Amino acid sequence: MDQKRHHLQGDRAATEQLLDEYIDYLMAHSDSAHPAWNLEMIRSWKSNKWNYIDGCMITGILELYEITGETRFFDFADRFLSGFVEEDGRIRTYDPAEYSLDNVNPAKNLFTLYDLTGKEKYRKALELVRSQLSTMPRTPEGNFWHKLIYPNQVWLDGIYMALPFYMEYEKRFDAQKDCEDICRQIANVEIRMRDPKTGLYYHGYDASRKMYWADPDTGCSPNFWLRAEGWFILGLVDVLEIMKDLPMRAESVHLQHMLLDLAKALSKYQDPSGLWYQLIALPELAGNYLETSGTALISAALLKAVRLGFLPESFRAVGEKAFYGIVDHRLTKNADGTPCVTGICLVGGLGGEQHRDGSTAYYLSEPVVQNDAKGVGPLLLAYTEMLR
Q: Going along 226-348, which residue ranges are E strands?
């Protein structure tokens, strides 16, 4: 192992070994066509496509390469993404005209692989994904639609999915031309989607106020969904990290204020176990449960923000408590000895064919599964922060 790697505190050698075994197991049983961690794809019996779920996993694996220096992590990531990225920069199964912010997320890894390999196909693929954002539909306030199939809608998820990529591209290749646009979009989320009573953010916002789940006055969906809060806070941290050496002090101060405000709000709802509830503000609600993926996202965000100096040191304890809550209560082994992460909400959204109305009943009706990358990927990101 590289000397940059730290180890988990206390008597945690067995936990660290189990996590390392789990990562090795997933890599050994995955390739770009058949990722073992993408339970949603496996259940659908469909061929794998370019998707944000795989993107989260590859981000974590590349973080492990940076920390440990072990080339097997780099080799896996390069091989996995090469299964999608053609030599001319086209990305198999990716169509910019779908206008889905989810499809932007995996492209973040192309920056790292371009730096490490110099392969021109990765640079061309970055251009292709950036072209989607140039013509992405927007709300009247100027925010990207979450997807073409969700007109005039902003979801918290989309901040993480698209804006770190957008900021990185502008910083590297576009003379920072549209960096202010990114910060304005985040500021609009604060204006439209933050609840002043709790300090939490609603999952979705419909600028047209026509959707059945939207409040006719505010346009917001009715509840605070844990994983959406997690995507949002980690997206804030990632954007701040990319822009930290840019001449954008006023914008950075504003985003750091938003981050601190949300970190304080989230801390109030943390369960003694270290986890947070699926419906974060309703811990007493019958059927509500402590959920793994959102907890892992918040853990990763808080730990990273403290490390980078965006949050006070006091939040490290909150992030570590969340991480250890997951590994103590949700990391186990199956009967056959294979590692397992439990308590993961499989999916969550608004509208669509399933008529997802954003109610408490809806969020508690989605399947709770094990070993899906929407929980495993964020746990891997939190783990890498613990090792730094």
A: 276-277, 290-291, 331-333, 339-341, 344-345
